[in-house]
Specification:
By secondary structure, this protein is of the alpha/beta class. The protein has a single domain, classed as 3-Layer(aba) Sandwich (Rossmann fold). The protein is built from eight helices and ten strands. The strands form two sheets. A seven-stranded parallel beta sheet has the order 1-10-9-6-2-3-5, with helices on one face. Strands 4-8-7 form a three-stranded antiparallel beta sheet. Helix 2 links the parallel strand 2 and strand 3. The structure holds 2-amino-2-deoxy-6-O-phosphono-alpha-D-glucopyranose. The site of 2-amino-2-deoxy-6-O-phosphono-alpha-D-glucopyranose has 14 residues, from loops.
């Protein structure tokens, strides 16, 4: 495992973008796992700029999102479908047939989870998973207590997560459930990048890197992965510097 500490959010995003750009340039077909949230916004902007410059193309990229809320339609502004389109996909040349995001409105959610897991396998598994970090150390929506053996499934969101994400739901109707890739699914990626920025993530980062590896701290599993890079800005790393 490697830990890279940079001075600020901008630099964190730039370093991440250069790793992603390299992975894309090297390979013909790359299967990505992609995050949402505040953290990866600038990374997506960097990648869009690189695409516009002509240095990278997403034509052969397969994208699987980490998660989606249950019950939200893709046009709902708080949905991750909407986020991905507005922050990334509509600006690049990725083919819509190569974009996969769990369907939170599926009639049979369990079947949707099995389908998602199978799709990832059919494309040969994840090459590169890009992750944000929840304040409670969640990855995707794998809340504390998630099994390290978990696959894509429906999960109940914790109070901490619902509070943290409340700002995205102007009507106050914060979903209670979500579909998320499992920790085993994420861990199966050949390479993983975890991004964390800001003081509000310092405690989560410290735990992820320092406590004994255990399911109460989902991000701690990454320390067992042979090819993981934590990219942190100074504020997020402030707990481990001490
Ligand atoms: C959300 C997402 C995660 C994300 C995390 C942090 O709930 N499900 O994939 O990494 O919370 O979000 P942010 O980057 O906004 O702090």
């Amino acid at each position: 495992m490697e830990v890279i500490i940079v001075k600020n959010y901008q630099k964190m995003s730039e370093v991440a973008a250069s790793i992603v750009a390299r992975a894309i340039a090297k390979n013909k077909k790359v299967v990505l796992a992609l995050p949402t949230g505040k953290t990866p916004r600038e990374l997506y902007r960097f990648l869009i700029k690189a695409y516009r410059r002509g240095s990278i193309s997403f034509k052969k990229i397969i994208a699987f999102n980490l998660d989606e809320y249950v019950g939200l339609s893709p046009t709902d502004k708080a949905s991750y479908h909407f986020y991905m389109k507005e922050n990334f996909f509509k600006f690049i040349d990725i083919k819509s047939k190569n974009i996969f995001i769990p369907d939170g409105q599926a009639k049979n959610l369990k079947r949707e989870c099995r389908r998602y897991e199978k799709k990832i396998k059919r494309y040969g598994g994840l090459d590169l998973a890009i992750l944000g970090l929840g304040k409670n150390d969640h990855l995707g929506f794998n809340e504390p207590g998630s099994s390290f053996n978990s696959k894509t499934r429906v999960v109940k969101l914790s109070k901490v997560t619902r509070k943290a994400n409340a700002k995205f739901f102007k009507d106050g109707k914060i979903p209670v459930f979500a579909i998320t890739m499992g920790l085993k699914t994420i861990f199966s990626a050949k390479k993983i990048i975890l991004l964390a920025s800001g003081k509000e993530k310092a405690e989560a980062v410290k735990k992820a890197l320092a406590v004994p590896i255990n399911p109460q701290i989902p991000a701690s599993i990454l320390r067992q992965h042979p090819n993981t890079i934590f990219i942190l800005d100074r504020a997020a790393a402030s707990g481990i510097n001490k």
